[in-house]
Design brief:
Blueprint lengths: L1 E4 L10 H8 L3 E4 L8 H8 L4 E4 L6 H5 L6 E4 L9 H7 L2 E3 L6 H17 L1 H8 L16 E5 L3 H10 L5 E5 L5 H6 L3 E2 L2 H7 L2 E4 L12 H6 L4 E5 L8 H9 L3 E6 L18 E3 L8 H18 L5
Parallel strand pairs: 1-2, 1-3, 3-4, 4-5, 6-7, 6-9, 7-8, 9-10, 10-11, 11-12
Helix pairs in contact: 1-12, 5-7
C-alpha cells in the first residue's frame, strides 16, 4: 500500500513518523515539488495512493476520481474546507484531522501578531533594514478589549495566554465552555456587540460557506483604530472592504496569516505598512510539526486498521 505525503514539513525534525508507516508495510511517497501542488501535479502523484497525508491542496471530485485506490485522507492540520467531504462520503473515503495537535502554536502566533501589530514591530524592522532610524508610534495592550470570535480549542488557548495581560476579554461563539468562560472572566456577547466593542478582533472559527464574517457593514461598526488578526481562514475576511477601511484610516493594524489565493498574497496589501502578512505560518513550529506528523500517521494506521 502507498501513502502520498503532500506536506513539506511532515517529519521535518524526526524520521519517526515515516518509519512508523514503513514498519506497517506502507510505501511513503513525499512531495517531489517541495511546495503546494497544482491540481495536475496532485493527480499525477495520487493516482495509485491508498492514503494521503494532505496539506492545503484541493481535494475536489476531479482529484478524488483520479485516485481509485484512495481509502483515507489524513489532513495534516484541522481545516477541511479544501476537501469535498460529501463526495468522500459518497466514495467511502474516510477523512481525518490532526485535532488539537497545532492549537498551541496557532494561539501563540495570533498573540504574537497582536503584539507586533500594536507596537509596529514589523514596520520598525522594515525601516531599520533600509538604514532608517525612524521610530513608530505604537499602542499599549494594557486596558484593551479583545474580542475573540470562536472560543474553541484555539480561541480558548488565546484567551489563556492573554489572561496574564491587563485586558478585557469578550467572546462570541455558538457553544461555550461555561466553566472556562467563568474561570477566565470572559464576557459572552453576540457577534455584533463583539465587533462594536473590541479594540482588537481575533478570528478563530472555521470557514463559512456563505459570506465573509467581516465585510463593509462590520468594518463600519468597528471602533476607530481597531486591530484585526486572522489566523483562521481567509474567507472570513472581505479584502475589498478591508482595503477601503485601511484607506479611510479606521484600522490601526492588521495581521493576516491566511490569504484568498494561497500560496499567493493579495498584492494590493503590499503598500500598507500597518498590514502584516505571513505565509500561513501559524501552525509551523517544531513542536507542532512533530505532533501533527505523528497524529496524521496514527489516523492513517487506525483508519486502514493496519497490523504489524
Amino acid at each position: 500500500m502507498k501513502v502520498l505525503v503532500t506536506s513539506n514539513s511532515f517529519g521535518k525534525y524526526s524520521q519517526e513518523p515515516k518509519k512508523i508507516l514503513e514498519r506497517y508495510g506502507l510505501e511513503v511517497v513525499l512531495n517531489p515539488y517541495h511546495r503546494m501542488m497544482t491540481e495536475e501535479e496532485l493527480i499525477g502523484q495520487i493516482k495509485d495512493a491508498d492514503a494521503v497525508i494532505l496539506s492545503t491542496e484541493i481535494m475536489n471530485k476531479t482529484v478524488i476520481d483520479a485516485a481509485p485506490k484512495l481509502k483515507v485522507i489524513s489532513r495534516y492540520g484541522v481545516g477541511t474546507d479544501n476537501i469535498d467531504k460529501d463526495y468522500c462520503r459518497e466514495k467511502g473515503i474516510k477523512v481525518t484531522i490532526a485535532k488539537n495537535a497545532n492549537s498551541n502554536a496557532v494561539a501563540e502566533f495570533a498573540v504574537t501578531l497582536m503584539l507586533a501589530a500594536l507596537k509596529g514591530v514589523c514596520t520598525s524592522n522594515g525601516y531599520a533594514k533600509q538604514g532608517l532610524w525612524k521610530k513608530v508610534e505604537g499602542m499599549d495592550l494594557s486596558g484593551k478589549t479583545i474580542g475573540i470570535i470562536g472560543l474553541g480549542t484555539i480561541g480558548k488557548k488565546v484567551a489563556q495566554k492573554l489572561s496574564s495581560f491587563d485586558v478585557n476579554l469578550i467572546a462570541h461563539d455558538i457553544y461555550y465552555d461555561e466553566a472556562f468562560v467563568k474561570n477566565y472572566n470572559i464576557k459572552k456577547m453576540n457577534f455584533e456587540d463583539v465587533i462594536k466593542q473590541s479594540d482588537i478582533i481575533t478570528l478563530h472559527v472555521p470557514s463559512l460557506n456563505t459570506k465573509p464574517l467581516l465585510s463593509y457593514k462590520e468594518f463600519g461598526e468597528m471602533k476607530q483604530d481597531v486591530i484585526i488578526i486572522n489566523t483562521a481562514r481567509a474567507t472570513l475576511l472581505d479584502n475589498d472592504a478591508l482595503i477601503e477601511y485601511l484607506d479611510k484610516k479606521k484600522i490601526f493594524a492588521v495581521g493576516l496569516d491566511v490569504h484568498p489565493d494561497e500560496p499567493h498574497f493579495d498584492k494590493r496589501l503590499f503598500k500598507y505598512e500597518n498590514v502584516i502578512l505571513t505565509p500561513h505560518n501559524a501552525a509551523v513550529s517544531r513542536g507542532a510539526i512533530d505532533q501533527v506528523s505523528m497524529m496524521a500517521v496514527k489516523n492513517i494506521i487506525e483508519s486502514l486498521k493496519l497490523e504489524k
